[in-house]
Structures are given as C-alpha cells and as structure tokens.
Amino acid sequence: MADEMVDTLLDGGRAPGDILVLVTGDPHPWQSHELSFGEDSYWRQQDEGEDVFYAHASAERAANRGVVVLAVNGGTDEEAAQALPAALARAKSQLIVVGDPERLRTLL
Q1: 67: β partners
Q2: Of 9, 37, 59, 98, which is least surrounded by CB within 10 A?
C-alpha cells in the first residue's frame, strides 16, 4: 500500500524528494537495496533530497519532508504507536498512514 501511495503522490505532481516512507517492521526493499551500498551512501541519498527516501520509523536521522507515508507493517504495538507522532513531526504538510485497518484502529 505504501508503494501505491507513493505512486499516487508522484502521479499527482509531488517531487520524489518531497516524500519520506517510514516503516515499523521489515525494511522496504528499496531501503535494503540502498543499504547494500553502505550506510554513508544510503544517508547521502537522503541528504541529496532527489529521490523518495525509505527508512525505519525509529531512525532519528530521517529528515523532515513534505509528505510522510508511514507503513505500519510490523513491530510491536508500542513501537507502531510511537511511530505515529514521530512520523507526524517529520511531515511538513501531509501524513499518510497505511496498514491493517484493525491494527490501526487499536493504535489510535
């Protein structure tokens, strides 16, 4: 669902560098791919701000962006609940939360 939201945002005119995708569970495949080149290269991509950036919700180094897509895709309920205000704080204009609706209702 997070990927679909990113596609919708891009199709709607958002620049890739305006989007941050945070996950609460397993890393997004693109994050894993970028990390395979090393931590420095991975974080440099964020700093350059030209592409959608993917990070774990607990990554303190993740920068603010115009739109944050929070994928509640795992982790404990406590970790997911903590990710919500952290993601909101990073979203300059819009926060989109995706995940299992039942789980999200219990977290909210």
Answers
A1: 19, 94
A2: 37
Q: Give the global pTM.
A: 0.93
For the chain, the structural domain boundaries read 2-100
Beta strands of 1-108 (E only): which ranges? Answer: 19-23, 53-56, 65-72, 91-99
pLDDT tens per residue, range 8-21: 999 999 999 999 99
- DSSP 3-state assignment of 94? strand
Question: What is the distance between the alpha carbons of residues 69 and 55, in angstroms, rounded to a whole number?
Answer: 11
Task: Report residue 101 as tokens.
Answer: 């609706």
Class (C level, CATH) for 2-100: alpha beta
3-class secondary structure, 72 = strand
